[in-house]
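P.,

For your records, the input lines for the assembly:
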Amino acid sequence: MLPFARVTIIGLGLIGSSIARAVRQHMPTVRVTGHDADPDVRARAEALGFLDDVADTAGASVIDADLVILCVPVGAMGAAAAAIAADLPHDAIVSDVGGSKASVIEALRTALPQATIVPGHPVAGTEHSGPEAGFASLFHGRWCILTPTDDAPEAAVVRLRAFWEALGANVEIMDPRHHDLVLAITSHVPHLIAYTIVGTASDLEEVTRSEVIKYSAGGFRDFTRIAASDPTMWRDVFLNNREAVLEILQRFSEDLTALQRAIRWGDGDTLFDLFSRTRAIRRGIIEQGQDDSRPDFGRAHE
Amino acid sequence: MLPFARVTIIGLGLIGSSIARAVRQHMPTVRVTGHDADPDVRARAEALGFLDDVADTAGASVIDADLVILCVPVGAMGAAAAAIAADLPHDAIVSDVGGSKASVIEALRTALPQATIVPGHPVAGTEHSGPEAGFASLFHGRWCILTPTDDAPEAAVVRLRAFWEALGANVEIMDPRHHDLVLAITSHVPHLIAYTIVGTASDLEEVTRSEVIKYSAGGFRDFTRIAASDPTMWRDVFLNNREAVLEILQRFSEDLTALQRAIRWGDGDTLFDLFSRTRAIRRGIIEQGQDDSRPDFGRAHE
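Structure tokens returned:
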């Protein structure tokens, strides 16, 4: 018994197109339609053929949906929800994939006061963007967090959980505010730091861009992958999860200052203690299947 | 014509054992001997069989060497050099693989005032340590930086360059001080930031370790790989490249504070501008073969 028969994807980038591909692979009888505000993206999605139908308007794409997933940057969620409001079937469930939840819930609730809303966030992705970048196995073994508000019908949450599990994901239910704090540390601040260090490197007068590139295998190149992620998506995440990001950033800065002081004063024990402690988390991530266990992420070494 | 006939590796961890394996693969007629101060590492190296001989003392290992490469943490370079001083053949070249160069040059010069010293630094590695972690292709396509001082004979530099090129590396000659600044940005500060954020995450009271691990695919897990690197090696790097690391850290902190302010005041343009700019460096790294071009470093997605 499939949780949904007609799924609509609004926003056909990396995540939206991956969901569509995954539905086709795991639930081939489900009809998947979609829409993107950008006509060029619509044309590319049409050509790639991962949807049963690409609609020219958001309204037309949802007309017979029983699940609508908004896959747009979190700052565009309100507008995307407003664009489907008039045509949304009254029994459809609306979800999303936004990386911050409290602000998205507010935006969706405002645009769709009558709808059944179950917000979601699949914690998965790559540094590539656009409909060409998606692939069906993106959610395999990854976690999808649902953050239903108290008024969400239990049955709707159960169906959405079954949907994500059918795509290969693990599902967790979480309070939206707690989600925003957890993701600030596991995703948002790491991205901000990566963007920052790549910017710092670009701006150094004494070190050329060619040198930064040549010697990036010393560690820097890892940060450039994350710092190649979609700029609009990430701008919106920071503007919409401000409070939690600033809280984690403040703690990070204090910790970094303490290490800076240890370096200045030659306090090797403080450095060694931290550097030993951090290995345990890596082991936990490998043991729980959340990263490739091969050295160097399994990067090709000829 | 091989640049060296008898190579000695002092320190049989990831880098030392990779050099030994690479020499065996690319220059099978070269005799490679080695020593490690830790008897357990010597026994494991012996069992792994990547050396022609594992000597019980540093002195015995260099007795007929024409190239000696010190592959120990930079804080241990002086002691490692002193341990071979009495037995080093007068025509042997001494090199190293340390991640900071100015302090290492001073330590080697003090311990071996008469020797021909050509310091080096292969910019390559993984997060794994020990003789089991090494592999012959580690240096393929990576850069090895040589930082000879003015008194180094040109012929010695030419031979060491030929040696590294035979292992598949590209070679660059650089001033030691400039090396230390370049590596502070491409390697040292990225490692420090990674260690810091993993520490910050471990210390959060409101977010459990289990949550950090589960949702690490949001970006955090990338940092945990680097933060699993060898603690002794990295403590020594920071203590020995203090000046350059503090300089780059100061710039990084200023840049991060500017972004923090942009988030606090809702200045999306500043965020978007940086996030767009940083993609170019990633492209350069891919184009120049310094990272895997596949999304997500080529991580396995089932």
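Two observations worth noting. The CA atoms of residues 107 and 213 of chain B lie 41 Å apart. The mean pLDDT of chain B is 97.

Regards
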